[in-house]
Amino acid sequence: MNDFPGVLRVGDLDIAVSVSPRRKTVRLTVERDASVTAVVPPQVSEAELAKVVEAKRPWLYGKLAERRELGQARPARQYVAGEGFPYLGRSYRLRIVEPGREVRLIRGRLELGRGGGARDLVRWYRRVGESWLKRRIRPWAQRMGVEVTGLRVLPLGYRWGSCSPDGKVNIHWATMQLPPTLIDYVLVHELAHLLRHDHSAEFWRLVERALPGYEDCRERLRRLGPDLWLPEEGR
Length: 235
Ligand SMILES: [Zn+2]
Known about the structure:
By secondary structure, this protein is of the alpha/beta class. The protein folds into 2 domains: 7-71, no CATH class; 128-234, 2-Layer Sandwich (Zincin-like). Helix content is 38%, strand content 23%. Helix 2 (57-71) crosses helix 6 (214-224). The two termini are 37 Å apart. The structure holds zinc ion (ZN). Zinc ion is lined by residues 189, 193, 199.
């Protein structure tokens, strides 16, 4: 494997390969920018690696789809009067008010203090998201028979949500830009992960039971993701 190429092409996948004498098995990773890397033990041949990649193809595609949902380039926003920002599936225009004021949504306008920017808006999404999502997740948790011990709204890179086995759920603040039905899908998805930590058939059955026709939500989320506002400061 000494002359192994830096990038191996398997089907339509480009995989950046590095060799590590410490590894006993091939490790495949889908990075945040939706690139795929492999760390392989020295004795693995190109054909063997290709075989591993083939076997893991469905998993890789699933991961890549997840990363790409939130990972694409999106139009930059300006912090000037009239600029639109999505909230619960609708667009709200900015009204610039006196400097130093906290962001608030009032009479159909999003008020931003002069000189304010991404940081202030992200803080607002997190603040409103915290109370909105805590209310919203309760009936879903009840219906699915899971206990949520905490909910935080924060930047999560290119993921919509995450959770830990002790019942803590994290939701990306950018989720608050989605229509409520799609937010429900994000919540149900994380709640189902409290019961199943993988994306197995059993996991999707749990999602389906709570949210019949969830595939439609998943598809809409995939299409909507790239239109959301995700500034550098909020990732
Ligand atoms: Zn998941």
